[in-house]
TrEMBL record:
It comes from Pasteurella dagmatis ATCC 43325. This is Transporter, CPA2 family. GO terms for cellular component: plasma membrane. GO terms for molecular function: potassium:proton antiporter activity; sodium:proton antiporter activity. One of its GO terms (biological process) is sodium ion import across plasma membrane. It comes from the Bacteria. Pfam families: Na_H_Exchanger. The keyword Transmembrane helix applies. Gene3D superfamilies: 6.10.140.1330. Residues 9-354 form the Cation/H+ exchanger transmembrane domain. The chain crosses the membrane at residues 9-26, 38-58, 70-91, 111-129, 141-164, 184-209, 230-249, 255-278, 290-309, 329-349. The lineage of its organism: Bacteria, Pseudomonadati, Pseudomonadota, Gammaproteobacteria, Pasteurellales. Belongs to the monovalent cation:proton antiporter 1 (CPA1) transporter (TC 2.A.36) family. PANTHER family: NA(+)_H(+) ANTIPORTER NHAS2, SODIUM/HYDROGEN EXCHANGER.
Amino acid sequence: MEQLDFKSFLLNGILGFLLFAGALGIKLPVLKNQKWEITTFALFSTLASTFLIGFILYGISSLIGLQIDLIYCILFGALISPTDPIAVLAIIKNLKAPKRLSMQVEGESLFNDGVGLVIFTTIFAVAFAGHEPTTTGITSLFLQEAVGGIAFGFVIGLIAHFLISSTDDGSLEILLTLTIPTAGFMLANMLHVSGALAMVVAGILIGNWTRYVGFSKQSRLYLDHFWEMIDHFLNSLLFLLIGLALLLVDFTYQSVILLILAVPICLTGRYISVWMPFKLMQRFRTYNPYTLKILTWGGLRGGLSLAMALSIPKGTLYLEHIGMDVRDILLVMTYAVVTFSILVQGTTIEKMIKKSKETVLHQRGYVDLNPHKNEHK
């Protein structure tokens, strides 16, 4: 595990495959219906969560005498704020949540993944690369990564579309889709644009346009089965490595206090960052009563957050009052939040989703949520 470069393996490797596979299943008509919600949650909520978690952690750590520099607290907020599409998509698909709610959670997790990586890269550059934290510098870096990634994803999706449409060979069509998360993802990283956002955009393009125009009926089945197989295999491998990553973590009693605090801090930051835009959007649209709860509790963290934490250089700053390097402190807190979100949130969200489905059926007149209410009549 010490020899494995987790950052290269996930951020520069399998992440492209996982995001592309997830985006292939996104239905554009439903996505259009939820475009404002997904955009707001992916952009505003991720950014708000980053600073909320950062400032709350800084305030509490200072209060209990385990102070961590503000820039590292915000860096922790950046790496822990994006929900992990790998974990979220697997659970939402298995439980078959209501379509609108499902698309909100899926769309947000796919897009805030790319946005979160861009925010992390920007703050990382300020913390470690010596970049001056000027508004112009940070904005230009953010726009280069985000806008560049979306534009690049559209271009490679378009190229792949025309290549796939020009052949009737089913095997070749599937092989051409493989060029997107391999050569396309690598090229995006070389051009310093967001490969994550590029994969999401290209996946949506192939899944909603090329699927019906470029592929034969038989090839569509091959496309779904092939990418489903890759998705399941890489998911299993990734979660195995997340478990083994615990071997890399060293603990002190001070770090145990911080890792216990990290979970409620992250949940609080997530709730506030989602609650603010949600209350505003409720004025214009009616939502399932469990939407806010599911968006908060279903904001699972996984391998992506761990990969970002592991990418922080070791030996940067040793905090004597905690007895650990700042990188190890952030890694310990990240691992605590990831473990809690997968083992606790991931296993308990099923009840919320079932209740939300019952509510939808009740609104349509299929289910009586309180069958004993009128028994006396």
